[in-house]
Amino acid sequence: MSSQVMEKTESNVAVEDSLRDLPLSNSYETAMEALSSLITRQKRGTPSSVGGKYGKFDRMQMYLKILNLEEHIPELKIIHVAGTKGKGSTCAFCEAILRECGFRTGLFTSPHLIDVRERFRIDGFDISEDKFLLHFWDCWNQLKEHVSDDLPMPPLFQFLTVLAFKIFVCEKVDVAIIEVGLGGKRDSTNVIKEPVVCGITPLGMDHTEVLGNTLGCIASHKAGIFKPQVPAFTVHQLSEAMDVLHEKAHELAVPLKVVEPLDHKKLEGSKLSLSGDHQFTNAALAVSLCKCWLQRTGNWEKIFQNQDNPESNMPEAFLRGLTTAHLYGRAQVVHDSSSNCHFGSAPADNSSGDLIFYLDGAHSPESMEVCAKWFSSAVQESKQLPNLSSSSHDVESMKEVWGNGYIQSERGNTNESNKISKKILLFNCMEVRDPQILLPQLVSTCASSGTYFSKAIFVPSISTYNKVTSGTSAIPSGISNQDLSWQFSLQRLWEKIIHGIEGDVVLDESSKLDSAETLPPREFLYEDASRCSPADGNLACSSVISSLPLTIKWLRDCVRENPTLRIRVLVTGSLHLVGDVLKLLKR
Predict the structure, then answer these.
(1) Counting Cβ atoms within 10 Å, is residue 464 exposed (0-12), middle (13-18) or buried (19+)?
(2) Looking at residue 469, what is its pLDDT?
(3) Eight-class DSSP state of 263
(4) Residue 411, SS3?
(5) Burial letters 346-378, b for 16+ CB under 10 A, else e
(6) Does residue 199 contact residue 171 with C-beta atoms inside 8 Å?
(7) Ramachandran area for residue 309 (φ above 0: left; ψ -120 to 50: alpha; else beta)
């Protein structure tokens, strides 16, 4: 660690010296405005309007040539990962494993949740603001000097991809782990010609407006990252997808291996740092990718020559990586104690109620099922230890009653008796998603594990598709004249699901929120679901709130006012929503 700190200190001094030569106007927010100008479409699903006479990959090659990166990309010794679910987790595991093996790592993932710098990790840390600005403006200015009618500035994701290559080359990483943005075959990252190894995570139905509406079409796009004779690994897939992967691998003489989920016994009593049973699949894929990378780069025997039988036993460096990898917004739990936010740890005092956020950016049917299983498991585990403060108390027998949501303790700490527990869904999704699949999947999977939501809140995200913001960007407290038609349609669907109603649910106009400042009364949390009657306009099961900041404030006020209240909030449906909540909690 000391050598890493010394190297980081020396590097930062060099960066600060370089930044002194930049104009004062080149602030971080100015960089965000510049990035925002590269957004070529207003919302997901609409075509990107890029001018010029060249196609995407011709443009990408020209951008790389302008920046003198073409010849250096093979030096990055890339691990390239595509898939529908688990790309980010697999990449995070790979990065942590190889870093623990002693290599300088670069990790490029998408999207970012709070700050664009999350997309670029060096040695396990988001790139510093100073280094980001140095590489950003160098890249920006060089490309600006060469733009023309034939070669415009790259759209946002293409620019970020080029920037990632520049950062990793300049920072002299030993390995770059690159996550595909969308698909594979036509993704900007697919300018990589000679990766060391490729990986395909679990496949499912997502981005169908771009990739096609069959699993076979989607698999074909993902297999587009395969390169002739370069080893590739995948996990068990449905036959429609697996057949396509094998066919594409055969065409390119790619040795494709299918990886079994990781046996938990190999962890030797440790736990994966990323939660959920599905992570055993992602971890196994990461282990295979890293082992192959080490072997193909001539490092396997060098590193593990003194370790007993590393082929059958999990190397210690691999174990450390699997138990320390981190990824924001995927199966993440944040304990929030009033105005104080605790990431990854419980609040220190018990002066107010408990407010716990469970965040997962699931937005496809398959990932929603995984999210529901994780949430159900997480809240049921927490019932074993109901006191979320730093001291624990034994509670031998617990019973939960859904409706008014009281947890009654037959024996235990008196402060925990009659604790009011509420599970709330905080949901939004993009209009290109199909909530008629997502929400029933969530409800039914949770119910199969005995987990039920007391209430659901539907709220628009703060993030917009046409603006890049940072962790310090201003957040509007409320939005007047906000179009909430999508949120009301989600609410109607929710009411149908909860009440088993067929056909349309008609909402009384009086039940709609007329003002951006309107919030549900505190009593909304405690209303018995049995009194909910959509036909009468009495929506005791759900609410639409026009502002996410106001929603978080309302939840915080609720637990401040009632020390016996414990609210568990599942935030899902959109990575944008998850990122917005994280940003607000960090404030």
Answers:
(1) middle
(2) 80
(3) P
(4) strand
(5) bbeebebbbbbbbbbbbbbbbbbbbbbbbbbbb
(6) no
(7) left
| Residue the block writes with tokens 């809140």 | 457
140-151 per-position pLDDT tens digit: 999 999 999 999
Strands 419-427 and 105-108: unpaired
> What sign results for the dihedral spanned by CA atoms 54, 60, 63, 68?
negative
Residue 82 phi/psi, 5-degree rounding, is -120, 170
Neighbours of 504 (CB within 10 A): 8
Q: 45-70 as b/e, with b when 16 or more CB fall inside 10 Å?
A: eeeeebeeeeebeebbebbbebbebb
Cα gap 469→116, rounded to integer Å: 8
Full DSSP string of 153-178: PPPHHHHHHHHHHHHHHHTT-SEEEE
Q: Would you state the structure tokens that stand for residue 60, as one six-digit string?
A: 């990408």
Q: Which residue has the tokens 């990854």?
A: 344
**Amino acid letter, residue 349:** D
Q: 186 vs 215, 220, 225, CA distance in Å?
A: 17, 11, 9
For the chain, the distance separating the N- and C-terminal CA atoms, rounded to the nearest angstrom, is 30
Q: What does the block give as tokens for 369?
A: 């099922």
Return d(Cα 77, Cα 34) in angstroms, integer. Answer: 30
Query: Is the distance from CB of 423 to CB of 401 less than 8 angstroms?
Result: no
Give the ranges where 365-406 is alpha helix by DSSP (H): 365-382
Cβ–Cβ under 8 Å, residues 255 and 308: no
Residue given tokens 């999210």 in the structure block: 371
Kindly state the DSSP code that residue 398 receives in the 8-state scheme.
Answer: E
Range scoring the smallest mean pLDDT among 18-32, 423-437, 563-577: 18-32
Show the tokens assigned to 448.
Answer: 């199969």
Q: Going by C-beta distance under 8 Å and a sequence separation of 6 or more, which residues neighbour residue 239?
A: none
- Environment class of 189 (CB within 10 Å of its CB; exposed 0-12, middle 13-18, buried 19+): buried
SS3 label, residue 340: strand
Residue 25 clears pLDDT 60, i.e. is over it? no
Q: Is the peptide bond before 111 cis (omega within 30 degrees of 0)?
A: yes
How far apart are the C-alpha atoms of 296 and 314, rounded to whole Å? 19
Under the banding of pLDDT at 50, 70 and 90, the label for residue 100 is very high
Distance separating alpha carbons of residues 266 and 286, to the nearest angstrom: 14
Phi-psi domain of 94 (left: phi exceeds 0; alpha: psi -120 through 50; beta: other): alpha
What size, in residues, is the chain? 587
In sequence order, what are the beta bridge partners of 80? 178, 198
Instruction: In whole angstroms, give the CA distance from residue 400 to residue 74.
Output: 57
Residue corresponding to tokens 């957040």: 475
Comparing CA positions, the residue from 367, 518, 554, 375 lying closest to residue 453 is 375
Q: How far apart are CA 357 and CA 420, in angstroms?
A: 16
**Range 151-154 contact pairs with CB under 8 angstroms and sequence separation of 24 or more:** 151/52, 151/54, 151/59, 151/62, 152/50, 152/51, 152/52, 153/37, 153/38, 154/38, 154/59, 154/60, 154/63
**pTM to 2 decimals?**
0.84
Tokens of 519: 């919030």
φ/ψ (deg, to 5) at 569:
-110, 120
Query: What pLDDT, in 10s, does the model give residues 46-97?
Result: 556 677 788 899 999 999 999 999 999 999 999 999 999 999 999 999 999 9
